[in-house]
Structure formats: structure tokens, C-alpha cells
Specification:
The protein has 12 helices and 7 strands. It is an alpha/beta fold and about 280 residues long. It folds into 2 domains: about 1-50, no CATH class; about 65-280, Vaccinia Virus protein VP39 (Rossmann fold, 3-Layer(aba) Sandwich). The chain has a 7-stranded mixed beta sheet, sandwiched between helices.
């Protein structure tokens, strides 16, 4: 019986190998390929439907990161800031456990006239990486372009408050932007309502710059050129658009900097995610 079973397996294995080495291979694997593709499409369709009927957001989507992606982010922060990974994990946990910040976001969103285009749930996504980098590197002057509702701004401000020093300058040309920036978060934030290129040209001594405004390649390039004279020697330059344009990487090469990228993975969301591009001076 054992010999018969072994012989059948050998015949089957031989037959399979012959099929897989023939033009019939594509047809043979079609069912398994279809199963994988349909399963992936079904998961995307489910998350899309849930978002369409359960969320108010029309831009700057919010979500959590997958557990493994959060671990990758901890290592990314540790490598960039030259700290141990346990400390980096601690900073990520710190922002996620900040009940005062979460309550502020919920309350300010519910009180805003723009609440119909925002969710009351608190989900920071890759912004927790901004927080951890600021906690680790303790910049004195952070500049952000593209305030929008101010979610990233209050995350940055929370890090500066924890550090006990530093200020945020956030720039947007929309006069109704930044409704989340109130209370203690406003106390460390300077809001500028202006064209970002004009505003950046008037700044100096910037330790940490984040491009998150107009995401066209041309505008990103012009912002990088505008902020360059104001950058401190060891400034970090981040782009929230580095997953879709090569501008920060090109600028890093042109200016003798290094470039690296964290690839974001949202948890149970149809959006594929963005990332954190960083240009920095090599020691």
C-alpha cells in the first residue's frame, strides 16, 4: 500500500512537472491565480464600501498603520535619529497614548463648521513618524507647508511641547485651514496664511522642514529651492509627497545630501498609503 501510494505521488509529480513545462501551465494555474486576485479585490471592495458610507473625509485620509508597518517605522526613526529602536518604539507609543491630544482632536473637529468633511475618530497614520523624529532630534524651528485642518500641525506641536522647547511655523493659503490648532497647541505654533513660496523666502534657521502642500512636482521642487537658504546645517527635510514624485531624492543628490524613504501601509483602508521621504546631511 505504501509502495502504491508512493508510486502514485511520483506519477502525479511527474505529470504536474510536464504540465508546468508546457503551454498548458497558464491554464493549470488559472484557478489559484483567480482565487488570489478575487480575494484581494474583495478585501479592497469591502474597505472601500465601509469608507464611502462610514467616513466624511474627501482628502488627507486618516487611518492607523499595520502592526508590522509600525515596527518598520520604529526602525526607520531609530536609524534616522541614531537612537535605539526601543526608544523609537516608545515615542510612537507615546503619541498614540496621548489622551489629551486625542480628546482635543475629537472636540475641535466636532465644534468646527468643517466637521462634515472630517471624521471624529483619531487616526494619525505616518504622522506618528513625524512626532517620533521631532521627539528624538529636538529641533528648535519646525516648518510645515500645507496646514489643511491642522492634524499634522497638532501632532508636531505635541512633540515640541513634550520636548519643552521649539516652535512650529505652519503655512497654508487657505484662510479657514488649521481649525485644530487651538489651546496649548496654538501656543507653540505660528500660523501663516500666504503663498508658501513667498512665506518660505522670509524664514531663517529652520531645523526641520516638511513639504505637505501642493503635491505637483514643480511646486515641490520650488519649495525645496525656497527653503534651502534657511536650513540649518543638520536640518532634516521631509516630503509627504515622496511616494509620487522624485523631487526630494533629486534635490538631495543635487545638494550633496542622502535620501531615504519609509513606505506607509494603512490598516484596513482602501488607500494604498503614502510615506515619509527624508533628505539629510551625512555625517
Amino acid at each position: 500500500m505504501k509502495q502504491s501510494s508512493l508510486r502514485a505521488k511520483l506519477v502525479h509529480s511527474s505529470a504536474v512537472q510536464k504540465v508546468m513545462a508546457s503551454p498548458a501551465a497558464r491554464l493549470a494555474v488559472f484557478p489559484s491565480r483567480a482565487s488570489v486576485a478575487v480575494g484581494a479585490s474583495g478585501r479592497t471592495a469591502a474597505s472601500t464600501t465601509k469608507w464611502l458610507f462610514g467616513s466624511n473625509e474627501n482628502t488627507n485620509y486618516t487611518y492607523n498603520l499595520t502592526p508590522i508597518n509600525r515596527e518598520h517605522l520604529a526602525w526607520f526613526v531609530a536609524n534616522m535619529a541614531r537612537i535605539d529602536v526601543a526608544t523609537a518604539r516608545g515615542y510612537l507609543a507615546e503619541i498614540l497614548d496621548d489622551s489629551a491630544l486625542s480628546a482635543h482632536v475629537v472636540d475641535a473637529t466636532r465644534a468646527s463648521p468643517q466637521r462634515w468633511l472630517a471624521d471624529s475618530g483619531v487616526r494619525f497614520g505616518r504622522r506618528i513618524g513625524w512626532y517620533a523624529l521631532i521627539r528624538a532630534m529636538k529641533p528648535q524651528h519646525v516648518v510645515e507647508t500645507g496646514t489643511d485642518k491642522g492634524l499634522g500641525s497638532v501632532v508636531i506641536a505635541a512633540a515640541l511641547i513634550r520636548n519643552g522647547a521649539g516652535r512650529l511655523t505652519t503655512i497654508d493659503n487657505n484662510p479657514v485651514s488649521g481649525y485644530l490648532i487651538t489651546g496649548q497647541y496654538a501656543a507653540v505654533t505660528d500660523r501663516i496664511i500666504d503663498d508658501s513660496l513667498a512665506a518660505l523666502a522670509a524664514l531663517d534657521q529652520v531645523d526641520f522642514f516638511l513639504h505637505d502642500s501642493d503635491h505637483s512636482a514643480e511646486h515641490e521642487r520650488r519649495e525645496l529651492e525656497a527653503i534651502a537658504p534657511a536650513l540649518a546645517e543638520r536640518a532634516l527635510v521631509l516630503s509627504d509627497n515622496a511616494h509620487s514624485t522624485p523631487e526630494l531624492a533629486r534635490w538631495a543628490e543635487l545638494t550633496g545630501r542622502r535620501f531615504t524613504f519609509f513606505d506607509e501601509r494603512p490598516l484596513k483602508h482602501w488607500y494604498h498609503g503614502g510615506g515619509i521621504g527624508v533628505a539629510y546631511q551625512q555625517s
